[in-house]
Amino acid sequence: MSIIRASSAVAAPLIRNTLARPYAYPTRLSFIPHRATVAAAIHNRAAAPPPPRAPRAMSPLLARYKAATASLAVRGISSSSSAQSPTVDPHVQAASRAAADPAVQDARAADAEAEPLLRPDAALALSQLSMAKLATVWMVYQACGSTRLVQAAPGLLRLFERLRLSWLSNAVVRRTFFAWFCAGESEREIVHTMRRLKDSGVGSILDFSAEADLAEEGAAADAATARAQANVKADAFTKEYLHGLHMAAQVPGSFAAIKVTGLADPEVLFRLSQPYARLRTAFDAADSDADGRVDFAQFRDAVLPALPGGSRVASASGVFGMVDRDNDGQVDWVDLQMALGMDNPLARPLYLRATPSSDYGAIASDIDDYERLVSRARAVVQHASDRNVRVMVDAEHTYFQPMIDHVALVMQREFNGAPSASTLVFNTYQMYRADSLQRMVDDLRRSQREGWRFAAKLVRGAYMELERERAARLGYPSPINATLDATHAVYNQGVQLLIDRVAQAQQDGAVPPALFVATHNNASIERAMRQVRDQNVDLANEPVMFGQLLGMQDATSYAVAKAGLPIYKYVPYGGLDEVMPYLIRRAQENSAVAASIKKEAASVMGEIRRRIFGRFGAAHQQEQQHQQQHSHEAAAVAQQTLTKKEL
Q1: Rounded to an integer, what is the distance from CA 542 to the centroid of its chain?
Q2: H or E element, residue 293
Q3: For the chain, what is the mean pLDDT?
Q4: Rounded CA gap, 59 and 544, in Å?
Q5: Which of 91-100, 339-348, 455-464, 577-586 has the lowest mean pLDDT?
Q6: C-alpha–C-alpha distance, residues 91 and 439, integer Å
Q7: Buried b (16+ CB within 10 A) or exposed e, 94-132
Q8: Is 499 helix (H, G, I), strand (E, B) or coil?
Q9: If you write DSSP's letter for every residue of 144-205 in order, what string do you get?
Q10: What are phi and psi for residue 26, nearest 5 degrees?
């Protein structure tokens, strides 16, 4: 906040002097007068590289980490880590080369032949369910396995609504999909579910699963009314997130998840995300030698014009000087993120539309709504810190993600490096995106420059069908990896990269990054478990965790818990109408992995058969034993009678 206040003080006279057009926002920027002052205010450091520093006392953050409880690490064969400090392209390129390296492939084959560390036991996971619950779960999995039914589900629900039969469809969904994939609607039901998981060695990530998206065409009222309604809704979502933190705090060690689309109007997020996305595309195109950096000419001619307000800048050299923190004449993507983000008031005019008739960029009211968004996010994370609850920022649609990432990075900078904070903010990376590994590496580098603890949750992704359909409809390249194998490879590379960093940091006595391996893929979990063991990672303070969704891969979750590793379930909750989009996505996700869902259904049916035939067999065996005993008694009586006659 001190950085923002400092830059705001510098920005005020500059922006006042740049109003040259009759629009309601600044139309021209001039950064020359106080370039050094602005750069120092934004980066809080001198322009010249800092001189070598003498060893300093242990930071409060590191001291707090080193004071963790005794290690619960999975110990095994020790191997040293030689991880280097992360860079942009070299890491991504090395990871891609590693996927095709024969030695790496041989190592993977050896891992596959080795005795598995992960031993899922469906019977252990299902043993707590009643027969009625098992029957319901089996029907849910069967429905998820029907691609036609899943695809028709949204239309069927709309049809029931038009026929005024929503009460009927809601009753069916509430007793099936909702009952299995969600924790409940009341606080009592939700906390009970979390405590039941805790008793089994599984933690909880409480997630208010209401979702928001762009309004349908023709559905919006006038702009002022729509904006007011959106802010009222965002305030309501904020209160619900605060209530969720209250519930999460009742079960120590829990997380709470938040969706940035719940904290602001999705239309605002979309408009603010557009410039971020185009800026990245322009930067990559300008980086002609692929070294991850651009010089002033490339910045002036290709990068700056990609922003809506780039053409209104009076001095491109002034803007470049603000970005070029070390005055070496070149800047990388992290430099751009740090200097030209929306959290810098000087940079905000760059995101505003060039003309009122343009549809690219933000409008004047979006700046105020951005401030409200950050204020709501800060209130939620502060509430979490006050209650010792960790926070996960969910990933969402790609057309919102640049702004979601921005808010997550701002919260991580404020709370993940503060010694007094009792929370940790995680950002989520959807590894089915073609740019996911690069984005993760960039954010890791930014955390090192700004001095806060990096925390990432890695998922494969949950919006694949929507993303591909939208890209095809609007005529732009799909942001999703071309093949499933490519997504598997990128996911495993991201996990390997962060586990390497964790191991290296622990060897160096530093605070490690935090990694949450969120996947239902047993091969990825097995691979991560081996990496944790082979690199002798200390899990005392949970630098590496695992997680699955409530109602999915329960056998795997209990097996990870049994192995002594930190394991969590994503625990969705909310009103049925609010979580319906989430339930539809769960069904779609399950139908997309038919083999996995068939295996789940087969496990449930196996448990049902075991109980039925096990009881029948036990009863039959008991009857046979009774008959044998009766025969023995009859024979003994007959023998006694015969003996008496003989006497």
Answers
A1: 17
A2: strand 293-295
A3: 80
A4: 22
A5: 91-100
A6: 12
A7: ebeeebeeeeeeeeeeebeeeeebbebebebbbeebeee
A8: helix
A9: HT-HHHHHHHHHHHHHHHHTT-HHHHHHHHIIIIIHHHS--SSHHHHHHHHHHHHHTT-EEE
A10: -60, 140
* pLDDT band for position 218 (cuts 50, 70, 90): low
* Residues 6 or more apart whose Cβ sits within 8 Å of residue 278: 306, 307
Bridge partners (DSSP) listed for residue 294:
331
Residue 194 structure tokens:
């979390």
CA diameter of the chain:
132
Tell me if 200 sits within 8 A of 558, measured CB to CB: yes
DSSP code of 456?
E
Residue written as token pair 């996505």:
585
Q: Smallest Cα–Cα separation from 329: which of 338, 320, 318, 337?
A: 320
Rounded to 5 degrees, φ, ψ at 67 are -90, 15
Least confident of 72-76, 122-126, 624-628: 72-76
The C-alpha atoms of residue 379 and residue 407 are separated, in whole angstroms, by 13
Beta strands (DSSP E) in 134-260 are 203-208, 255-258
Number of C-beta neighbours around residue 602 at 10 A: 13
For the beta carbon of residue 632, count every other beta carbon within 10 angstroms. Answer: 10
Pairing of strands 203-208, 255-258: parallel
Q: What tokens does 422 get?
A: 């009792």
Q: Residue 231: CB partners within 8 Å, gap ≥ 6? A: 265, 369, 372
Angle at 635 between CA 629 and CA 638, to 5 degrees: 145
Given a cut of 60, whether residue 3 has pLDDT beyond it is no
Please give the radius of gyration of the chain, using alpha carbons only, rounded to the nearest integer. Answer: 29
What is the enclosing helix (H) or strand (E) of 515?
Answer: strand 514-518
* The one-letter amino acid at 406: H
Q: Supply the DSSP symbol for 222.
A: -
- Within its chain, how far is the Cα of 220 from the centroid? 30
Instruction: In whole angstroms, give the CA distance from residue 370 to residue 8.
Output: 15
**What SS3 state is found at 210?**
coil
Q: How far is C-alpha 65 from the geometric centre of its chain's CA atoms?
A: 23
Q: Kindly state the average pLDDT of the residues 112-127.
A: 79
**Contact, 73 vs 538, CB < 8 A?**
yes
Q: Is 218 helix (H, G, I), strand (E, B) or coil?
A: coil
Structure tokens at 255: 């997380």
Distance from C-alpha of 277 to C-alpha of 267, rounded to nearest angstrom? 15
Q: How many residues does the chain have?
A: 647
Helices (H) then strands (E): counts for the chain: 25, 10
Residue 475 tokens read as 């005529």
Contact status, residue 520 vs residue 552, Cβ threshold 8 Å: yes
β-partners of residue 362 are 352
